[in-house]
Amino acid sequence: MIRLKNIFISILLVIVLNGCSTMKLEDFKLKKPELKLEEFFAGKTIARGVFEDRFGNVKKSFVVHIDGTWDGKQLILKEDFVYDDGTTELRVWKLTKEGDNYYTGFADGVIGIASGSTSGNAFNWKYKFNLSIGNSKFKVDFDDWMFLLDEKNLLNIAKINKFGINLGTVILSFSKE
Fold it and tell me: Would residue 30 count as lying in a domain?
């Protein structure tokens, strides 16, 4: 009985600690340069990234060639992934600008609608995603942060969680071509 109680307390502690982030979007409102997704992602962009598991071990690396178009209301991002094992993937994001700094979006694999906002040089958005691992799919939560470093470079850090437990992190560096 005591052992079961200790296991339960340990699991609860992990969930609480993983859910505690002190970063808030409004903390970036004065940071420059100002991030406007439709400006940064219009045209050709290349990203290089890694996926690391919850223990910090890099499990996969990849390159993404992105072609972005902006029609004044919607940003469409065609993303061609090439993974280090030679596999490829195409993902098309459709982001709609709903207000000055608020966006909604959808891509294959997203459950429902992704939503987020910009403030200063940062963008934070959250969404549920059907993540393929082997022959299985897992419903996970993404907490995705982007930071515009300068007019040609953007850093993206996305935490992946299930039931409040961190499964891993995707780290990407975007560059304008």
Answer: yes
| pLDDT tens by residue, 23-62 | 999 999 999 999 999 999 999 999 999 999 999 999 999 9
Provide the whole-model pTM. Answer: 0.85
Task: Assign residue 94 the CATH number of its domain.
Answer: 2.40.128.20
User: Do residues 90 and 67 lie in contact, with contact meaning Cβ atoms separated by under 8 Å?
Assistant: no
DSSP for 49-87 reads EEEEETTS-EEEEEEEEEEEEE-SSEEEEEEEEEETTS-
Domain containing residue 144 = 23-176
Can you give the pLDDT at residue 167? 94
Q: Does residue 10 sit within a domain?
A: no
Integer Cα distance of 138 and 64 in angstroms: 22
CA distances to 9, 163, 172 from 14, in Å = 9, 11, 26
Q: What are φ and ψ of residue 26, in 5° steps? A: -65, -20
With respect to residue 7, please indicate whether it lies within any of the assigned structural domains: no
